[in-house]
């Protein structure tokens, strides 16, 4: 038997399979496909301080081995989240990680403080990397701003803080380092990559927002490389790997590259039971390879160049 | 969000019984799945990954409406049909799948149509929008039920795109045709056919529409002007089909009069025509 438990700082999860914010609705939607209490954790859709209508349609378009989205953080705001979704989330039987996005530092801090006073939340993930609203991206590309934000959020919220980082930077390591130094329990990487799709006959981008975030199998190699970069530079910082994870083997690749846990994202859209199946498949794959504990394989990838 | 009422849905690997052309660029695919066939209602849809046998290309599922439920000799549901028009990579890939291959599918999804009206029904279809109305006609025209007759007003660009007209006849649905090029039936819009009937003083108990947004908007205006009860089935672009991705939102009028973007996959695809804010 493989011990499937993983740790992210002081947070212990029953297994490494989380589901990514924005790909699992408010969790309720998934209850007929996924045995929710088997998951390592659930991360509902990003919540903002006030209700947001989101972007016009088309909001998504399929691309080669992936998709672009520009949803625009469509949600009913934090008060609705607390009143309507949180009571349900407390019953699902998996750790709940709330994902929040503020328009500025103060909003992030106020939202984290509000959720920090609510029972039934295991951790907070800061969405400082949404490519489809201007402020999140601006914040997440600046290491100093990320460090300041994490520090302030930690001082107002007792829960473990996870910073979800953007890949749309020259080097993600200094940003992860700033989050670590400010006391982040973990970093999630990667959010989507900015991209676009074009209808040349109409001379128009296909998305109503023109550009969007690329996700799906197409981004997995980039995500693996970024996880490895951060894991090598910051071996003490827990990482949650995200990006094109659709199978148990994908997840195990992220674990050995340095992720302590993973998030299944776009795969849920085209394989709604993927996360559920992955829980057992990771354990059986690992057992076949003689692994006794998933924790012991985290970050065990060795360079072919002797590094 | 609130008000969603799931029956199922199931995520299955279904075997293709047949996948046959029924009109130009139009196919009917039959999938063996008793669980979905036994629970799906008219107006609901399934998501079908068109790559087949676990292929990731194309990546996402495609939403396709129930066309008909197939029963065995004892009347038990064993399979279901959907009819699709080849319009892009996904439907093109689907048209290349063969009997015996398997497809990843999930459903039933969406709310479906309401109960049979107390009087005649008119279905208004544009393009490939006729597909939900065969199952609906069968459901509403059950002997002894409140709906005495159903008429399909069916508009396509050209006669060779007409798909399943004989199926509708066999189900007891009267069919009237309109074409953009005059190659069959009325030369003009399908909504002209309804306007003509209403001008003659007909008053259907229920009008239901499915087709391109411009057609549905015209239908909504026409039925509102005549004070008729009208529902429409929207065909917005979807990535997941079960409410997780928030791709398929449409502006829907709320009880307080405001418009809010709602997910067509879980709150629809069927909405009262006057509840949709037409752009």
Topology:
The complex is a heterodimer of chains A (307) and B (279).
Chain A: E1 6-8, E2 11-13, E3 17-19, E4 41-42, E5 47-48, E6 60-63, E7 66-69, H1 78-89, E8 97-101, H2 105-116, E9 123-127, H3 134-140, H4 143-156, E10 161-164, H5 173-181, E11 186-189, E12 193-195, E13 198-199, E14 204-205, E15 212-215, H6 220-233, E16 239-242, H7 248-257, E17 261-264, H8 267-270, H9 274-288
Parallel strand pairs in A: 3-4, 3-17, 5-8, 8-9, 9-10, 10-11, 11-16, 16-17
Antiparallel strand pairs in A: 1-2, 6-7, 7-15, 12-15, 13-14
Chain B: E1 10-23, E2 26-32, H1 34-39, E3 45-48, E4 62-65, E5 68-71, E6 77-85, H2 89-95, E7 102-109, E8 121-126, H3 132-140, E9 150-156, H4 165-170, E10 174-179, E11 186-187, H5 190-199, E12 206-210, H6 213-225, E13 230-233, E14 249-253, E15 259-263, H7 264-267, E16 270-272
Parallel strand pairs in B: 8-9, 8-12, 9-10, 10-11, 12-13
Antiparallel strand pairs in B: 1-2, 1-7, 2-6, 3-4, 3-7, 5-6, 13-16, 14-15
């Amino acid at each position: 038997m493989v011990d499937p438990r993983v740790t992210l700082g002081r947070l212990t999860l029953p297994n490494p399979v989380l589901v990514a914010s924005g790909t699992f609705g408010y969790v309720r939607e998934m209850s007929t496909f996924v045995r929710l209490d088997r998951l390592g954790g659930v991360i509902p859709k990003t919540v903002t301080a006030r209700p947001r209508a989101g972007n016009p349609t088309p909001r998504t378009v399929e691309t080669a081995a992936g998709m672009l989205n520009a949803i625009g953080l469509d949600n009913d705001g934090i008060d609705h989240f607390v009143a309507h979704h949180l009571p349900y989330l407390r019953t699902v039987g998996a750790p709940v990680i709330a994902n929040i996005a503020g328009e500025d530092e103060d909003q992030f801090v106020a939202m984290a403080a509000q959720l920090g006073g609510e029972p039934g939340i295991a951790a907070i993930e800061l969405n400082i990397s949404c490519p489809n609203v201007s402020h999140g991206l601006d914040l997440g590309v600046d290491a100093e701003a990320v460090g300041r934000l994490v520090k302030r959020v930690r001082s107002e919220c007792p829960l473990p803080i996870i910073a979800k980082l953007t890949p749309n930077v020259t080097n993600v390591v200094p940003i992860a380092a700033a989050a670590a130094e400010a006391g982040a329990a973990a970093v999630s990487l990667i959010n989507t990559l900015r991209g676009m799709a074009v209808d040349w006959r109409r001379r128009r981008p296909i998305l109503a927002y023109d550009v969007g975030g690329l996700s799906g199998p197409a981004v997995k190699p980039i995500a693996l490389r970024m996880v490895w970069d951060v894991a090598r530079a910051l071996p003490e910082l827990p990482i949650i790997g995200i990006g094109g994870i659709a199978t148990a083997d994908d997840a195990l690749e992220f674990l050995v590259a340095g992720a302590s846990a993973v998030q299944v994202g776009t795969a849920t859209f085209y394989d709604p039971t993927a996360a559920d199946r992955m829980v057992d498949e990771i354990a059986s794959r690992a057992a076949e390879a003689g692994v006794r504990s998933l924790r012991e394989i985290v970050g065990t990838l060795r360079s072919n160049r002797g590094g | 969000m609130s008000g969603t009422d799931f029956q199922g849905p199931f995520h299955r690997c279904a075997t293709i019984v047949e996948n046959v052309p029924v009109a130009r660029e139009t196919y009917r695919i039959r999938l063996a799945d008793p669980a979905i066939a036994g629970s799906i209602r008219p107006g609901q849809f399934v998501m079908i990954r068109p790559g087949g046998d676990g292929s990731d290309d194309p990546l996402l599922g495609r939403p396709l409406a129930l066309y008909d439920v197939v029963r065995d000799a004892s009347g038990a549901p064993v399979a279901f049909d959907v009819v699709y028009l080849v319009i892009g990579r996904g439907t093109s890939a689907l048209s290349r799948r063969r009997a015996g291959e398997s497809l990843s599918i999930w459903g039933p999804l969406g709310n479906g149509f309401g109960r049979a009206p107390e009087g005649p029904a008119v279905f208004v279809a544009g393009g490939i929008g006729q597909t939900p109305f065969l199952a609906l006609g069968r459901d509403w025209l059950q002997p002894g039920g409140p709906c005495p007759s159903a008429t399909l007003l069916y508009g396509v660009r050209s006669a060779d795109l007409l798909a399943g007209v004989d199926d509708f006849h066999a189900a007891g649905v009267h069919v009237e045709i309109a074409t953009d090029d005059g190659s069959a039936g009325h030369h003009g819009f399908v909504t002209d056919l309804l306007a003509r009937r209403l001008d003659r003083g007909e008053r259907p108990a229920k009008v239901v529409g499915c087709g391109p947004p411009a057609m549905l908007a015209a239908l909504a205006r026409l039925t509102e002007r005549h004070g008729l009860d009208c529902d429409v089935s929207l065909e917005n672009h979807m990535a997941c089909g079960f409410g997780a991705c928030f791709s398929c939102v449409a502006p829907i009028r709320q009880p307080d009069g405001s418009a809010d973007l709602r997910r067509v996959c879980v709150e629809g695809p069927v909405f009262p025509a006057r509840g949709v804010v037409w752009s």
